Sequence to fold (227 residues):
Amino acid sequence: MAIVRTQYAKNDNGTSASSFTIGSGQGWASTSSGSTVIVVMFVFNDTLAPATTGVTDNLSSTYTPDLALIGSYGGIYIYRLSNCPSGITTVNINWVGGGHASSAMALEYTGLQLGSPLDAVISALHNDLSATSWTSNNIATTGNDLLLGASMTFNHYTGTMAASGNWTGIANVGDSADGDDAFVEEQLNKVSGTYSASGTGTSANYTSAIISYLGVGLITGWQVFIG
Fold:
């Protein structure tokens, strides 16, 4: 399993928008047939009015929501398109019911099971308050898994979020003007066991999640971050 490319973009100053697009302007290229697209979305301070989300693309594909949870300082959402067609050149994120300060990462992987790759997912976000490290709740996996961990802060920019233990950071995208951070990490080809996402940063309030997908053989991936 390996990441081929990592590209991201973001909007500063907590820009609230009802929709935005990951496309060629952010470095997204056409997908390959049979791969899996995973979209990780962060909504900052999404506690009083949780956002209803929707993900579409230029081919009008149907994305499956694998995680949609609210914590004390924001929401984390993960959508998936398995066995995707070639030719997806834009991925569209929609917040139904109004604009929300948010970020999103689109990842493309090969080597995941095409039918139902979701293996394990948390039932609640974990919050670490005024902490210099963060962790998610635990999941129990089947084996040969892709693990994805996600963590965020709201109104507390650190710029130093990092993976810990066996985790590898994919992107740490922060907004020093508005004070938000979003971070995604991964572990590849993991055997069955109990896992939690974990990382470090300067003192802040963190909200974190973990999810796993079943793999078949080699997995490669590339991703784009926008917010």
Q: What stands out?
A: DSSP finds no helices and 18 strands in the chain. Residues 143 and 191 are 4 Å apart (CA to CA). The radius of gyration is 16 Å.
